[in-house]
Design brief:
Helix content: under 10%
Oligomer: single chain
Low-confidence stretches: 1-19
Radius of gyration: 17 Å
Largest sheet: 12 strands, antiparallel
Order of helices and strands: EEEEEEEEEEEEH
Mean pLDDT: 82
Shape: globular
Structural class: mainly beta
Number of strands: 12
Length: about 170
């Protein structure tokens, strides 16, 4: 059974005014890899070997990627790597959201990113580590889980005070 930790909407890691760039989901998805197979009828692609996906500010890298687009234009991806990496710019912030794991699932319709196996998510200097991390880009809700007997690890750094507040 998994041990579970859920961080609320006003998460310790993210302020309520910071969001992953929503405009990214409206941008075209560009995939480069050593090999790709695309089925136009089902809108499914399977890419292997040094896979790089870019969609707006979002970048995903890994060893294998399976993507699909539904009838409404929502894009989905599953990736595997040693490790797979995910990076996206946050709205209203100079920060980037970075994540890494051996596997991931991304649901463009819901904005849910699930990172699995040796997973971590970082924003600035704040870090969440677990066996499975689910991140909702719409609500900024994190859910971190560890395997039985394991623990979730969260590092939260104090925010820098403005120069005028220190004086």
């Amino acid at each position: 059974m998994y041990r579970q930790l859920v961080l609320p909407l006003v998460a310790i890691l993210l302020s309520s005014s910071v969001w992953a760039e929503k405009a990214d989901r409206d941008q075209p998805m560009n995939i480069t890899a050593d090999r790709c197979q695309m089925d136009q009828k089902t809108q499914t692609s399977i890419c292997t070997g040094n896979v790089v996906v870019v969609q707006g500010s979002m970048k995903i890298t890994g060893d294998k990627l399976v993507t699909k687009e539904d009838a409404n234009g929502a894009q989905y991806g599953q990736g595997w790597g040693s490790p797979s990496r995910f990076k996206t710019k946050l709205d209203n912030s100079p920060d980037w959201l970075e994540a890494e794991g051996l596997r991931f699932d991304y649901n463009g319709a819901t904005g849910i990113l699930k990172i699995m196996d040796k997973a971590w998510v970082r924003r600035g200097k704040d870090l969440v580590i677990g066996d499975v991390i689910i991140y909702d880009m719409n609500t900024e809700l994190y859910q971190a889980e560890s395997a039985k007997g394991g623990r979730v690890n969260i590092t939260i750094n104090p925010k820098k005070k403005a120069a005028s507040a220190v004086q």
